[in-house]
Write a structure and sequence with these properties.
- The protein has a single domain, classed as Phosphoglycerate mutase-like (Rossmann fold), CATH 3.40.50.
- The chain is globular, with a radius of gyration of 16 Å.
- A hairpin with a 4-residue loop joins strand 5 and strand 6.
- Helix 2 crosses helix 3 and helix 6 packs across helix 7.
- 39% of the residues lie in helices and 22% in strands.
- It has seven helices and six strands; from the N terminus they run E-H-H-E-H-E-H-H-H-E-H-E-E.
Length: 189
């Protein structure tokens, strides 16, 4: 099975410089255009199924692609982004730095656990379970529209790679050989 993992397009939270994670923001006009441009490239990928995180930004991205590919997009809760930022979620980074500098400093490593946040181990288990479930689908090519957190978790935990995923970044994973290919908007960390 081939699974393509795509990060959503640019969001309002990106433009406003907010701590995202569990923050449920929308795509910007630029994000919609980025997604539509990627959707055109996906036409030749023989995708048979589209799965989306339940967050609005991922669902909006998945719907743009679904229209281009003529496929429905299914929302799967387990592919949602990690609530990494806890009490900082949705807060502008500048404001967080002023009000909670000790918490803002903890955001530098995914291993840290902020108050009211999902631990990395809990998140990792959820994402690895989501990956295992996706592999059981009765199809040969799937697109998962998600976030940088789930995609970097898959790369780190299953492929042994540290990656940085930009807006509309795309990787291809062959689940038989557990090899991957960076197809754009992705770079090694």
């Amino acid at each position: 099975m081939i699974i393509y993992f795509m990060r959503h397009g640019e969001t309002t939270g990106d433009v406003e410089n907010r701590y995202g994670g569990d923050y449920d923001d929308h795509l910007t006009l630029k994000g919609r255009k980025q997604t539509d441009n990627l959707a055109k490239k996906l036409l030749d990928m023989k995708i048979k199924k589209i799965i989306s995180s339940p967050r609005k930004r991922a669902q909006q991205s998945a719907q743009i692609i679904a229209r281009r590919l003529g496929l429905p997009a299914q929302v799967v809760k387990t592919w949602r982004e990690r609530n990494f930022y806890g009490t900082l979620t949705g807060m502008k980074k500048e404001e967080a730095q002023q009000k909670h500098p000790e918490l803002a400093a903890l955001t530098q490593s995914y291993k840290n656990n902020l108050p009211k946040a999902e631990t990395y181990n809990s998140f990792k288990k959820r994402i690895l379970d989501a990956f295992a479930h996706t592999k059981t689908l009765n199809t040969d090519t799937v697109l998962v529209v998600a976030h940088s957190g789930p995609i970097t978790c898959i790369a780190r935990e299953l492929l042994g790679k540290e990656l940085k995923i930009h807006d509309c970044g795309l990787i291809k994973v062959d689940t038989k050989t557990m090899t991957f290919e960076m197809l754009g908007g992705v770079e090694p960390k």
